[in-house]
Amino acid sequence: MANIPLHLLLLLHFSFAVRCQLIRKLSLINCSWPCPDESDMCVITKAGGNCQQQTDNDWLLTTRRKAPVYTGPTVTIYLQPCLPAPFPELPPFKENMTLKQGQSVIDWPSGTIHRPLDQYLGNCGHGLYCSFTGVDSNSPVCRQRFDHGAFCVSSNQCLSSYCHDNICHPKTDIISKDNRTTDTMSDNQDSSYSAPETSRKTVIILGSIFGAVGVLACAAICYLLYRCHYRQKQVTTNNEISIPIQKLSVVSSNNIVSQSTLKEEQFVTDFLHEDTQLQHSVSNNTAVSTNTLTYFTPNGHQPKKPPV
């Protein structure tokens, strides 16, 4: 390796860098999240991806938007052999394909801008990356990550986990196409890979909240409508009951007035009748007295009857 000219090493290194600029495409994978059997996980191997029981040394694809994660031990020593992440060739997805149970369509190769699935992803620890391209293609080893401003071909090679235009940049700085530097674009760019998963959870949460609020609102409206209907019905019933009572009161009052009037008329009639009888009796008595009265003179002679 020492006899290889430096410019040849750089040329080989750059040639393999071109391979790392992988084009993401829709591919078919025999995994789903979660798997049909919830005890299984999506395990990535050189042959592909499948839902199966995981072991202690597997590469797991925990979500369709991120690179696989190794479940085994990590290598923390510089230039020690490493285990590269498997990079299977998945079948491309076509519009006329029908998905079976346990199958999904994903962007492949998966990964985020800070941790892509490429030839520099392996089980190396912090500050190291797994190199298995160029001179390390036959024996992958852990190498030191590069500092800001160093030449890079993958974000997995940079200490900041961000490589742009073959230069390591700070993680908080992402240079856009118009050469403007922002502090928040990295988070936005990173979330663009995992947005569907996050947005799906957000939609579910918001849907649950709005659904609960909608149910409560409907219940409140139904209750108010019922109360209004009940009050209106109660007022109508009270009116229907009060009308017969008023009629009955009027009838009763009329009966009382009629009875009082009859009594007064009867009293007047009786009084007039008694007065007539009294006058008739007085007149009769007067007549009788008149007929039976005899006048005598001082001489003892009976005078003539006075004219009536």
Question: What would you say this structure looks like, in words?
Answer:
The chain has 308 residues and is of the alpha+beta class. It has a domain at 15-171. 40% of the residues lie in helices and 13% in strands. The protein contains 2 helices and 12 strands. The protein has helices at 6-20, 185-292, and strands spanning 25-29, 41-45, 48-52, 59-60, 69-70, 104-108, 128-131, 141-144, 163-164, 167-168, 174-175, 181-182. It has a 4-stranded antiparallel beta sheet with strand order 3-2-4-5, with no helix packed on it. A hairpin with a 2-residue loop joins strand 2 and strand 3 (48-52). The longest helix is centred in the C-terminal third of the chain and has 108 residues, at 185-292. The protein starts with 5 loop residues before the first helix and ends in a 16-residue tail after the last helix. The model is unreliable at 6-20, 176-198 and 286-296 (pLDDT under 50).
